[in-house]
């Protein structure tokens, strides 16, 4: 009885949290269809703000820049972060492993403002011009620790005996990595990529410091336009971005469910084969 009562209150609290988080988003989406042009009063339903968004070639270009930076930075960070996690996992000395993990975690918890300012100082000292390249390198830098954190748990869940068996059978290092290691941690790699992609897509603080004249991302552009007054075109853009992110999350969940079902089928097949061998 007490457990049921606690579950009821937990569900109520969870529902309240979701309402607080999602109500402003739905409020923003609702007024993106307002014919009145403001968020003070809903006067009628219209798609004119979405039409204005489609006609804004500058904003479309900024969206494509943002998408390109997110895709490239997530891809490069996933490659570097995956091999970084493998290196940390196979570091023999516990003290060295803990130092590497601590250095990685410091970047995870450091405020974005500090990271952005540090990168700006670094680019200024080395004479690196601010623009697409500086934003891309910055996004790679703050995405790598995210990928490491997502991949490491999968490495600890992995069965090391498979690697030992492959080496005993004469497999070289690349065969072990490509045929056994990477497939075993593929869910973690995929999770790291999606996390890095979403972090890059909506990053503002770091990008604000390292972006230059002639290049911008959606987060910086929305901030600049909001300072001049909230336009319902921004509501329309935010709605599109929300739906785009929602599709990404649904796609990721679908891949995770499919991967888990495939893994379960393989485990059942192995169990069946072992049963047949025992019977024989």
Describe how the helices and strands are arranged:
Elements: H1 2-31, H2 48-55, H3 57-89, H4 94-109, H5 112-126, H6 132-157, H7 160-168, H8 173-184, H9 186-202, H10 205-210, H11 218-227, H12 232-279
Helix pairs in contact: 1-12, 2-12, 3-6, 3-9, 4-6, 6-9, 7-8, 9-12
Describe the structure.
- This protein is globular.
- It has one domain (57-264): MetI-like (MetI-like fold, Orthogonal Bundle), CATH 1.10.3720.10.
- It is mainly α and 280 residues long.
- The chain is built from 12 helices and no strands.
- The model has no long low-confidence stretch (mean pLDDT 83).
Largest sheet: none
Number of contiguous helices: 12
Query: Span from first to last CA?
Result: 51 Å
pLDDT below 50 for ≥5 consecutive residues: which ranges?
none
- Mean pLDDT figure: 83
| Percent of residues in helices | over 70%
Indicate the CATH architecture. Orthogonal Bundle
CA radius of gyration: 24 Å
The tally of domains stands at 1
CATH class: Mainly Alpha
CATH superfamily: MetI-like
> In what range is the share of β-strand residues?
under 5%
């Amino acid at each position: 009885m007490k457990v049921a009562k606690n579950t009821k209150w937990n569900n109520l609290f969870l529902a309240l949290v979701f309402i607080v988080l999602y109500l402003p988003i739905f409020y923003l989406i609702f007024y993106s269809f307002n014919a009145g042009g403001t968020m003070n009063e809903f006067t009628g339903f219209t798609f004119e703000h979405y039409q204005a968004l489609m006609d804004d070639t500058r904003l479309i270009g900024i969206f494509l820049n943002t998408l390109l930076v997110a895709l490239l930075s997530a891809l490069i960070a996933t490659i570097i972060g995956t091999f970084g996690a493998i290196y940390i996992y196979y570091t023999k000395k516990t003290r060295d492993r803990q130092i590497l993990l601590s250095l990685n975690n410091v970047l995870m918890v450091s405020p974005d403002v500090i990271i952005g300012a540090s990168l700006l100082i670094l680019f200024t000292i080395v004479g690196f011009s601010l623009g697409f390249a500086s934003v891309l390198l910055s996004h790679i830098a703050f995405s790598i620790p995210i990928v490491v954190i997502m991949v490491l748990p999968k490495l600890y869940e992995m069965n090391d005996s498979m690697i030992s068996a492959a080496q005993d059978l004469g497999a070289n290092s690349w065969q072990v990595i490509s045929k056994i290691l990477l497939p075993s941690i593929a869910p973690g790699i995929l999770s790291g990529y999606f996390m890095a992609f979403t972090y890059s897509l909506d990053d503002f603080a770091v990008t604000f410091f390292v972006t230059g004249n002639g290049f911008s991302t959606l987060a910086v552009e929305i901030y600049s336009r909001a300072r001049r007054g909230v336009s319902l075109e921004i509501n329309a853009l935010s709605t599109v971005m929300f739906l785009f992110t929602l599709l990404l999350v649904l796609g990721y969940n679908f891949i995770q469910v499919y991967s888990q079902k495939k893994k379960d089928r393989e485990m059942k097949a192995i169990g069946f084969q072992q049963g047949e061998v025992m019977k024989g």
